[in-house]
Backbone:
């Protein structure tokens, strides 16, 4: 088709001009139901919503003279769907609803073709159909509903918020999109600018405490607010935010409290509260004691959750000294508004009455520090603790030691005067300090108890002799020189004198003329042992023992004799020890080390054989032999060694049945091991001891052991008791059957066998029945 238009360009230009003239002519004969204009090849058509098609325009060409079969063809946006053309007449109709908000204009092309051959008779002509707006869309608040806030008591004209409405109509054509805003609800509190839609405060002195929230209804109307315009509404919820415009206020200007005198320090004694009509941070207050007698006795703190002032004790109360207090308490806002001239504080008078209480005894000191010499005799007075009843009645006080703090019962206290005495001698080297707790109890009210700590220091006395710091073993070279230092010796002392240790060393009198060794004081509580000659030989003497006496400077002085072992060794020329064993004596004989080891091994083997032989000779008793017969239920265990019975005490060693721990008189419990064990008194083994007395002693110690837990324990006594007065309960030795025996004698054995007798008696009666 393009090639055809190029070949007939002249005729096409003439036809195009005629088609445009047809467009103009067609616009002149548009339907009167809708207005249409053409300007620069443009149709203007109002949007419509009717169900019937509407004529847009008519196309006409000069070629339409009746002789040529022509056809009008429409192409472009909406052709065939929204717009349709009559192929014969050229009339263009809108077939569907036109909405400018969906599409404002359409671009189409019209062309005249041969009806028979579809060959274009004219080039296509482009034209535009523009949809003209009408006021068919109301204003809308897309972001609504709105929420806004403004401080209370704001000035008139204070801006609150701004609302925005949109209109889908054409803002350029007419007044369809020109909006005007107004308030339907919310007056006289608020106003709105009709053009900018800014909401402002319209009433002075709006108080949040009176009303916190307001609902404002805003209307937006198009057509400039004139009659016939469309409108839309939205709501604005305005909340008045709090400002600190109300001071705290006590409900009562005078408040009274009663506090017991035994109230603990730091505990609350009463609460006061000042109410504030504000909220949040503006309602928070702090409380202070600004006046009153002895303000240092009480303090007031603020509860952050309840906003209450809590009175607490800083010092103990004493009804006998002061019975009442008067305080002036102030409540003040934490946040202050400088624009407000009102005072943001309030005061109240608090009167506190002290209530008398039965108080426990009071020690003269919370902690007593006493001293006593170690090894002081029993009943030595260590010191005295004193306590008194602070009440007006003044009850007498009795003193006791908390035995949980004195497990070994090393101290006693006089219940009447509080004198602490020794119950056992003390050893400073075992425990330097003893901390016990003494309780004081009122005689008339035993529930009133107070405690005091008593720290007892054990003073040192010179009761320990000095001794070598370690087990010294010196080595002396055979080729050593006279005056050579063999060993440096120092001593230690368990005592701790105030002036420090000073030790004196000397040889025993028998060794003063010792030709082999001598000692030299080093001046630092140590000595050096020196050799007197260089003729030491292992063949002559391998080992020397040098007794040394060490004396301290205590009062009285204590001394001990310690022996230094000196071994003669073979050394190199440089004095390095090489060998100190007996090899030096054997090698000269001609025996090698391997031969010596073989000889020793043979000797050890012979000793083992001899020991085994002796052991087997002593234990001739054969083991229990179970002879198996065909019927395993009739196996017989034979004892080939006949004993002497219970009276035979020589047949075996009863010590093999003893518990090793029981021999020492102390058998620890098997259920739990206490941190501090109670050491019972020492007693001899069960050989030659009355069993009843032994058991009673153990029961008494177990009942009075404060470290014993209240658990069921098994006490194992590894020895056999005496025979029972009831004889044997076994029926193996009797030829009578159960039915022939009479068990009435069980009732005569005492209350422990009474129940057993009743059971057997019931059995006999059942058989008779």
Residues:
């Amino acid at each position: 088709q393009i090639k055809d238009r190029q070949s007939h360009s002249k005729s096409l230009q003439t036809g195009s001009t005629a088609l445009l003239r047809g467009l103009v002519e067609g616009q002149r004969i548009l339907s009167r139901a809708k207005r249409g204009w053409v300007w620069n090849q443009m149709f203007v058509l109002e949007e419509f919503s009717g169900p019937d098609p509407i004529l847009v325009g008519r196309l006409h060409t000069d070629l339409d003279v009746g002789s040529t079969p022509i056809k009008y063809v429409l192409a472009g946006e909406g052709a065939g769907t929204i717009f349709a053309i009559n192929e014969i007449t050229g009339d263009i109709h809108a077939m569907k609803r036109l909405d400018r908000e969906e599409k404002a204009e359409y671009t189409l092309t019209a062309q005249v073709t041969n009806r028979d051959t579809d060959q274009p008779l004219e080039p296509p002509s482009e034209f535009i159909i523009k949809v003209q707006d009408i006021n068919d869309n109301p204003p809308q608040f897309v972001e609504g509903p709105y929420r806004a806030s403004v401080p209370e008591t704001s000035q008139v004209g204070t801006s609150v918020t701004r609302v925005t409405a949109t209109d889908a109509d054409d803002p350029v054509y007419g007044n369809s999109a020109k909006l005007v805003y107004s308030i339907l609800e919310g007056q006289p509190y608020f106003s709105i600018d009709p053009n900018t839609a800014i909401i402002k405060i319209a009433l002075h002195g709006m108080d949040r405490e009176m009303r916190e929230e307001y609902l404002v209804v805003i209307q937006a109307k198009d057509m400039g607010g004139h009659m016939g315009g469309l409108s839309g509404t939205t709501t604005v919820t305005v909340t008045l935010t709090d400002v600190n415009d109300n001071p705290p206020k006590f409900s009562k200007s005078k408040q009274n409290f009663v506090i017991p005198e035994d109230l603990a320090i730091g505990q609350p004694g009463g609460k006061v509260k000042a109410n504030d009509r504000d909220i949040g941070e503006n309602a928070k207050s702090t409380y202070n004691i600004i006046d009153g007698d002895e303000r240092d006795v009480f303090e007031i703190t603020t509860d952050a959750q309840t906003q209450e002032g809590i009175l607490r004790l800083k010092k103990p109360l004493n009804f006998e000294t002061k019975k009442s207090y008067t305080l002036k308490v102030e409540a003040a806002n934490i946040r202050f508004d400088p624009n407000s001239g009102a005072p943001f504080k309030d005061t109240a008078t608090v009167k506190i009455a002290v209530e008398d209480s039965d108080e426990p005894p009071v020690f003269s000191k919370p902690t007593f520090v006493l001293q006593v010499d170690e090894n002081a005799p029993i009943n030595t007075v260590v010191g005295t603790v004193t306590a008194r009843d602070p009440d007006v009645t003044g009850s007498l006080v009795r003193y006791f030691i908390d035995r949980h703090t004195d497990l070994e019962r090393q101290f006693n206290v006089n219940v009447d005067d509080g004198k602490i005495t020794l119950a056992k001698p003390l050893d400073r080297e075992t425990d330097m300090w003893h901390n016990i707790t003494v309780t004081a109890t009122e005689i008339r009210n035993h529930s009133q108890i107070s405690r005091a700590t008593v720290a007892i220091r054990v003073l040192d006395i010179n009761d320990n002799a000095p001794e070598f710091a370690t087990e010294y073993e010196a080595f002396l070279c055979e080729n050593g020189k006279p005056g050579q230092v063999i060993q440096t010796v120092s001593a230690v002392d368990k005592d701790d004198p105030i002036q420090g240790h000073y030790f004196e060393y000397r040889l025993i009198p028998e060794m003063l003329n010792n030709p082999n060794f001598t000692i030299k004081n080093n001046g630092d509580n140590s000595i050096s042992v020196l050799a007197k000659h260089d003729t030491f030989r292992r063949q002559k003497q391998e080992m020397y023992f040098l007794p040394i006496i060490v004396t301290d400077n205590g009062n009285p002085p204590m001394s001990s004799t310690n022996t230094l072992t000196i071994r003669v060794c073979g050394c190199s020329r440089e004095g390095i020890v090489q060998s100190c064993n007996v090899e030096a004596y054997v090698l000269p004989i001609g025996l090698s080390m391997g031969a010596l080891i073989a000889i020793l091994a043979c000797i050890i083997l012979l000793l083992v054989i001899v020991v085994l032989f002796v052991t087997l000779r002593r234990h001739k008793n054969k083991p229990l032999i179970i002879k198996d017969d065909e019927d395993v239920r009739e196996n017989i265990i034979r004892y080939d060694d006949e004993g002497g019975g219970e009276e035979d005490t020589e047949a075996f060693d009863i010590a093999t049945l003893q518990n090793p721990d029981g021999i020492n008189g102390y058998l620890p419990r098997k259920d739990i091991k206490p941190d501090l064990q109670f050491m019972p008194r020492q007693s001899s083994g069960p050989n030659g001891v009355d069993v009843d007395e032994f058991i009673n002693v153990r029961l008494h110690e177990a009942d009075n052991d404060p470290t014993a837990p209240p658990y069921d324990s098994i006490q194992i006594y590894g020895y056999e008791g005496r025979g029972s007065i009831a004889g044997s309960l076994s029926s193996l030795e009797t030829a009578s059957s159960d039915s022939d025996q009479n068990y009435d004698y069980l009732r005569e054995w005492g209350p422990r066998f009474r129940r057993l007798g009743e059971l057997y008696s019931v059995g006999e009666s059942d058989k008779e029945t």
About this structure: DSSP finds seven helices and 44 strands in the chain.
